[in-house]
TrEMBL record:
Organism placement in taxonomy: Eukaryota, Fungi, Dikarya, Basidiomycota, Agaricomycotina
Gene Ontology terms for molecular function: delta(3)-delta(2)-enoyl-CoA isomerase activity
Protein name: ClpP/crotonase
Family from the record: Belongs to the enoyl-CoA hydratase/isomerase family.
GO CC terms, sorted: peroxisome
GO biological process, one term: fatty acid beta-oxidation
Amino acid sequence: MSYPVSFPSSNPLVTVTHPSATIWVIEMHNGADNRLTDVFLTQAFRPALDAVERHWRENWRAGVGKKDEKLTHGAVVLVGNTKQDKFFSNGLDWAGANKDPAFKTNFFPLIFNPAIHRLITFPIPIIAAVNGHSFAGGMVLAMACDYRVMTDGSKRNAWMCMNEIHFGAQIPLPLVAVLRAKASNAQVIRKVVLEGHRFTPKEALSSGLVDYVAGEDTEGVVSAARGLAEKVAPIAKSGAWGINKRELYRDVIEALARDVQGVDVVADDAAAKARL
């Protein structure tokens, strides 16, 4: 494959590069803030992951056959638009999505959940280079990766936050399952889900939501994430990374497969009124 390669080719929203023999970088550039729309997820993000996996598996098979261990290594860096330092991803286009009457029934089971499933089961390590704010679905996207390197926030503010509580929206079961699997303890998950706390980089690190804080801008974050990727890439050589992730995150995978309808606050209040 010749790099860089962009998806979709007619209107690129994601670009994949291959800066070293073992590292791929997936850059999301759906505008400056990388809203997670249906087109972005189905026509750009998932095809980009497929392209990386296809290339790595070709290398892996060749490396195993030739006893060339280096070919079996691999890792991915996932980063927000590199032309800015403000957003990793601003989550779903909630206002736009709710104009679609099929959104509540189709978006999560058919579009968002499969994208998160790809990350949670990906066969080589994925490092999220969190180069700015990661809100709601954007935070889940980062948490579904294997490692997170976040900007230090010294150049501009950067927060991780599930802000649904602040605008009266239910966080769907699969998203909660991802957060439960990746948050360090019950107190942290309470702050994330029930308080909608805006975690600074320092707070995210101390709470175990990210693994490293590094770099005041996108270039610094990507550099640190690539360094981590090079370090963990050899773990992929056995071919068991994705297999073991499927066992480790079995509860998440089962939650992603469930088509659970959300409850809005008005309907919940009406049910309570009838009950009381």
